Each structure stands twice: as C-alpha cells, then as structure tokens.
Amino acid sequence: MSLGEFELIERYFMRPARRAALGVGDDCALLQPRPGMQLATSADLLLEGRHFLSTVAPERLGHKALAVNLSDLAACGAEPLGFLLSLALPAAEPDWLERFARGLFALADAHGCELVGGDTTRGPLAIHVTVFGEVPAGRALLRSGARAGDDLYVSGTLGDARLALEAWRGRVALSGEAFEATRVAMEQPQPRVTLGVALRGIASSAIDLSDGLVGDLGHVLRRSGAGATLQADALPRSAWLAAQPPEVQRLCTLAGGDDYELLFTAAPAQREAVQAAAAATGVPVTRIGTIEAEPGLRAVDAQGRPVPLALSAFDHFRP
Ligand code: ADP
Ligand code: MG
C-alpha cells in the first residue's frame, strides 16, 4: 500500500488501550472479562455490493461494520468489551480511511467498545469485525428459550432499511426527505445494546433482526421447538413506511432485512418488566404476537384474517 501497512494502522486505528490489558500493536490483544462473566463473541463480514452500496459514506460504513456486530451482542444481553477489525482495501486512501475511522470510533466510544487489533491487506473492499463482550455466566439470552404462551416483542420500527433499498433500486417512489430518513436506517443502524442488557432475566429468548422478521423468527421457533402467530398490522413502522401501499408495508416489515432491532419473547407475567426495560433504555418495544405450541408461523391482520407469509405474495418486487 502506498501509505505503508504499518503506517496506516498506526495513523488510523491505533489508540491507547483502555480496558484491554493489551491493545493494538502486539501479536495478540489481551482482554480480561470480569470475574463470573462469560466471554460473548461474534463476527460479521461486509462485502461491497452484497452488504453495502458503493455509494455509502465512509463514516456510515465504519459505523455499520461495528453496529451489526454490537447488535449480535445485544441479542445475547452481553456488554461490549472490544473488537478486531480486518480490512481488505483496494488502495490506502487517507480521506476514506479518516472518515471510515471517524464513524467506526464514534460508535465504538458510545458503547465503550475498544479496537484491540485486526489485519490489513490489499484487495477488493471487505470489512470484517469480530466483537467481544461479557455476560454473567449462564444468563445470556438465547434463541432457544421461547415457550408456548410467551408474548412476542420487537424493538423500534421495522422495514425502513428495506424501504430505502427498494427506493434506491427504483422499485418504490419516495420523496427526497423520506429517502434520506430511511437511508439512515439502512446505513446507520443503532444496535440495541442497553435494551439487550436490560432484558436479561426478563426475556425468555432473543435474536437480532438482520435477515427479516419472518426468517429470523423462524430461527427462534426452530431452536425453541415452538410456533407463533404474528399480528401483521401491529408491526411497528415509521411514518415513511406507513405512507406506502399495503403490499410494500407487508414486504418491508415481514421480510425487510437489515433492521437490527431485537426480536424477543417474554412470559405474560413480565409485561410490566418489559415496558420498564424499554422506558429505562429509551427504546420503544411493541408486542407483535404470541408463541404457541403448534409448530410453524402464522400471521393475522387486525380483523383476525390470515395474512399470507409466502414471499411469492410480493411479486410486485421481482425485477
Ligand atoms: P501479524 O503479523 O501478527 O498478523 P500485523 O503485522 O498484521 O500482525 O499487525 C500488526 C498489529 O496491528 C497487530 O497488533 C494487529 O492486531 C494490528 N492491526 C492490523 N490491522 C489492524 C486494523 N485494521 N485495525 C486494528 N489493528 C490492526
Ligand atoms: Mg497480520
């Protein structure tokens, strides 16, 4: 690289270690979870064209690369400790690197999650983050804990990221203002870390929504050996999405992808505790359905009529 690999690391990614026993610069970083805590770890690979658009601002890309990993910690109720950043870059561009690092560190600092190492190489743009967090031993939220009779909840709103993507693809019409607003949801998701921590001991299961509600809920149901009925009209959505035709709203809320909200279950006896956790963390949560013993996923509208969940119902979006 023109800048030099080590110069690049030192200039953009090396900062003094804080909580870590050893940070960037040695062969390994050293992290020390507090006594009684388990290490929680997760990784995500972001490829240009597949996971982000070439038009994304570097600050937002830096944010998103870490955000999607913090979202996995949130789903487990884990608190962030640190992360590794592996980069393949076509060229060492100071302006791009400076902006990427700015977005990355802004989110990292907001969550007290420090960069402790990584790898850097020349190649087609790819960003790989491995995150480490800690959770009291045995108290991590899992996908497998949903039980018949539990309420089903989701945080925030669903579908804006997909709405922005469909607008970018030219398949839905959005005003400039709506596109900019929903594009922030797509490019700068806010990981629900504090909510995940607050739900420890309250939620019976949790997952973060990266692939769309129907798909991700399916993971919870399979792992838990249960089924569910969704209230399709209760799914929380922004004013931008609510202004779209019904089939667009259904697609974006049910099969949106890139929401990075928490989907979780809790026994009805926990309703007050769930709302208290939401209020304490400033993250709205909405009850969207019920876990049932009968396997499979069903959805009904506000009148109780079945809503089809097959994606073939959304042919509107086929190219
Ligand atoms: P090694 O040869 O052991 O793989 P490198 O020479 O690749 O180590 O990296 C030197 C140091 O810089 C290591 O501490 C590594 O963790 C760190 N590092 C490399 N790339 C990055 C990056 N993109 N962000 C943060 N730290 C990095
Ligand atoms: Mg290396």
From TrEMBL:
Mg(2+) 1 binds at residues 44, 119. Pathway: Cofactor biosynthesis; thiamine diphosphate biosynthesis; thiamine diphosphate from thiamine phosphate: step 1/1. Reaction mechanism of ThiL seems to utilize a direct, inline transfer of the gamma-phosphate of ATP to TMP rather than a phosphorylated enzyme intermediate. It comes from Caldimonas thermodepolymerans. The lineage of its organism: Bacteria, Pseudomonadati, Pseudomonadota, Betaproteobacteria, Burkholderiales. This is Thiamine-monophosphate kinase. GO terms for biological process: thiamine biosynthetic process; thiamine diphosphate biosynthetic process. Belongs to the thiamine-monophosphate kinase family. It comes from the Bacteria.
